[in-house]
Amino acid sequence: MYAAALLLAALLGAARADGNVSVQWRQLTFEDTHELVVTPAVEFILTFAPNPAQGVFPIRVWVQADGGDTSRPLLVTARRRIGAWTWQLPYRSGGALLYELERTLCPDDSVDAEKLNDDCDDDDPSLPASGDFSLHVGSSCAAPTRVQLRASFARDWRLPFQSSTPVVTQQGAPRVNYYRWQPGQNNVRLVVDSEDDVCATIAVQNYTCPIAETLEEIEVSTLRMTVIRSGGVQLSVNIQCATDHNGFRPV
């Protein structure tokens, strides 16, 4: 009975703590930078709704925090029809502590990797893309955290054949693009050239969700290469899952 009373008291205490959190709902616009102040008492649910013409593009989310620590980080959860993903700020990448990130959300028409059957087909294909998604932003850090965020459309999403695409990336902000195999095409060569003497990792993965974007994720789930000035890799269609979209993503 004593143990039960302690458990009941603990549950009541947790309920009172949750009751002190104010959740603010906001409808935000694309392509604009928005600023929030997040505290343990204030969380935000932010919704984004593109028009039909914009909904065909994948979405990139950029978030920056002005402080915090890894023991009580800012948590950002993105939700859309195909699934949900949570990121934290700050976070460690290699030996660096980063207060900024950019991530590409899985398009609504991509395939959940866990739903692929033995033939690498999706038993439950997604509905046409809509682009609607939401962000849930919260923190348990006692100090207020000033947050800036932006959702934008990845208009350079598709890689053309036999034509170059300029890409600008930095630590914490990988750039994801998509190449779709053309009819009758069995192999391609992916070529990367850079004017900077910076070591970069290029990872290739199937058109599935979630997208591997951190150094830790791409080490276990992608075909990858490291380049400084230039590099190339030969890709064959027989190493990719034969999904309806039949393509791959360089990261």
From TrEMBL:
Main localization category: membrane
Entry annotated with the keyword Lyase: no
Membrane topology note: Multi-pass membrane protein
GO CC annotation terms, alphabetical: lysosome; plasma membrane
UniProt keyword Cell cycle present: no
Keyword annotations from UniProtKB, A to Z: Glycoprotein, Membrane, Signal, Transmembrane, Transmembrane helix
Cellular localization per UniProt: Membrane
GO molecular function: double-stranded RNA binding; RNA transmembrane transporter activity
Pfam family, one: SID-1_RNA_chan
Domain of life of the source: Eukaryota
Signal sequence residues: 1-17
PANTHER family cross-referenced by the UniProt entry: CHOLESTEROL UPTAKE PROTEIN 1, SID1 TRANSMEMBRANE FAMILY MEMEBER
Family that this chain belongs to: Belongs to the SID1 family.
Name the record gives this protein: Secreted protein
Species in which this protein is naturally found: Mythimna separata (Oriental armyworm)
Lineage: Eukaryota, Metazoa, Ecdysozoa, Arthropoda, Hexapoda
